[in-house]
Amino acid sequence: MTASIQRLFDLSGQTALVTGSSRGIGKSIAVALAQAGARVVISSESAADCEAVVAELRARQLDVFALAADMSQRPQVQRLTEQLIEQFGGVDILVCNAGVSIHNGPMHLASEQDWDTTMNINLRSAHWLCAALIPLMAQRQRGSVVLMSSLSALRGNRSIGLYSLTKAALSQLARNLAIEWGPDNVRINAIAPGLIDTDLAQVFHDNPELKQRRLAMTPLRRLGHVDEIAATTLYLASAAGGFVTGQTLVVDGGTLITDGS
Question: Which of 109, 180, 219, 237 is the most exposed place for a label (fewest CB within 10 A)?
């Protein structure tokens, strides 16, 4: 890797917030951004989980901090943004990764609470964070936002329709905000992961037949790794992705384009 390429991925001097970063994809993203030189704020609903991750990563000489917040509660999200502004003057990189899928089944059977919780955590919290933090990026004439969409946002879904609805909205949010803030050199993109090997994939590991059917629809014939989503996020957050905005990058091993053979 040449020095010029290294500089493209260098995040030294920048501050990043990664929501839902106490485990899984979010934690891997936080590690990647910190390894690239960023100061990274770890955030999830559990303060204890955030502090545990911070202790682990500081032992690896990474520059990380903990600010817990429940993304379903607007007052907590507002307090999170206030703390970010008080302590760091805002952020240069915002990664909205927090998400839940609490209703499985036909959408007409989802309760009002299912709708409210899913919408708040998956979609509204991203809007709340963007509304509070992007204007500060615009003042500095730089910034990158990455919204975590999903492969399910690009296909019809029999059992996770409510979840996929919010994820599709995140891709549209990225497009809208990219147009609004592009003149201020703030880039907003989304990532649509396919089946990634996290705790959520355990159902496939527990059912080999189901797993093989699922992998048969993926040309690369494997699950994705959290580090592959983290690397994509680093690309979008850094100068390497400096001319990319309003896009949803699909990272799914080819599932979306497969003909099923």
Answer: 109
Here the tokens at position 32 are: 């990647």
Provide the phi-psi class of 247: left if phi over 0, else alpha when psi is between -120 and 50, else beta: beta
- CA 46, CA 129: separation in Å to the nearest integer? 18
* Collapsed DSSP state (helix, strand, coil) of residue 92: coil
How does pLDDT run across 159-187, given as a tens digit for each residue? 899 999 999 999 999 999 999 999 999 99
Hunting for tokens 């991750």 — which residue is that? 53
The tokens describing 108, both together, are 């007409």
Task: Report which of 97, 57, 64 is spatially closest to residue 233, judged by C-alpha positions.
Answer: 97
In this prediction, residue 230 has a pLDDT band, given cuts at 50, 70 and 90, of very high
Q: Which residue has the higher pLDDT, 202 or 50?
A: 50
Are 261 and 203 in contact, with CB atoms under 8 Å apart? no
219: which 2 tokens?
């040309």
Tokens 């703390």, residue? 83
Question: Catalytic residue at 163?
Answer: yes
Using a cut of 0.90, tell me whether the model's pTM lies above it.
yes
Band of pLDDT at residue 260, cut at 50, 70 and 90: low
